[in-house]
Design brief:
The protein has about 230 residues and is an all-alpha fold. It is built from eight helices and no strands. The protein has a single domain, classed as Rhopdopsin 7-helix transmembrane proteins, CATH 1.20.1070. α6 runs antiparallel to α7.
Length: about 230
């Protein structure tokens, strides 16, 4: 069973995810950020399911392991879709939405094909490791795409405050995940570093919630402030 710290961070993250959905409904922005809300709603459902499996079968059970890795792959796919929806918003005025969508489909299929090829050598690994490999590869692709999107935001001088801050939070989230995985490879899974990923899971919905609450959809950044953000 996870310890009290793990459970506290877990429940807090779920509460922050629910907070963003409530804030979106209250500010009438649910449909505007539909894929972000869908991602967090699925995440809430997954957290509930994992807790049920944990209580019913235990952390070391095959049932919990299967549910954990395949639900993680589902969450990563949904987050990938949410990221592409942000691409569509940034490039919407350039009428390149269709190209973005088709590019995302081919990238997703390519990532899935690569992940399958990695684990297809072993039939025993295929049923369990494919979900893990797909999730890991999509996180890497998401990290690269987020930085490309941030470069587009700076290049196009995007000034919509909500959109800019949501993309910036997502970039920090992916960067933190990549750094924490690298650190865990050196420090061991039982180090305090293992709490970084769950804490990042709390940071993302909390930062999005604050963005929705503090800024209206009409809020704009001064271009000079936007250029100063990455310094």
């Amino acid at each position: 069973m996870p310890g009290p710290i793990d459970l506290s961070i877990w429940f807090l993250g779920t509460a922050f995810e629910l907070l963003f959905v409530v804030c979106s409904l209250a500010r009438k922005s649910f449909l505007t950020y539909l894929f972000l809300n869908l991602y967090l709603l699925i995440s809430i459902a997954v957290s509930t399911g994992r807790f049920v499996f944990l209580q019913s079968y235990g952390q070391g059970s095959s049932q919990y392991r299967y549910f954990y890795y395949y639900s993680d792959a589902l969450l990563t796919l949904t987050l990938f879709c949410a990221l592409i929806s942000l691409y569509s918003r940034v490039f919407g005025e350039l009428r390149t939405g269709e190209y973005v969508k088709w590019g995302a489909v081919f990238l997703l299929l390519g990532t899935a094909g690569f992940s399958y090829a990695v684990v297809a050598q072993s039939a025993e690994r295929l049923s369990t490791d494919f979900a893990y490999e797909l999730s890991q590869n999509l996180y890497f692709v998401g990290l690269v795409l987020t930085y490309i999107l941030w470069g587009a935001v700076l290049k196009l001088r995007e000034t919509r405050t909500r959109l800019v801050q949501i993309i910036l939070s997502l970039g920090l989230y992916f960067s933190g995940y990549a750094a924490s995985y690298a650190l865990m490879n050196f420090s061991g899974r039982f180090s305090i570093i293992r709490y970084i990923c769950p804490v990042l899971g709390c940071f993302l919905p909390l930062s999005w919630s604050l963005t929705i609450l503090r800024n209206s959809e009409e809020s704009r950044l001064v271009p000079a402030q936007l250029v100063a953000v990455p310094r």
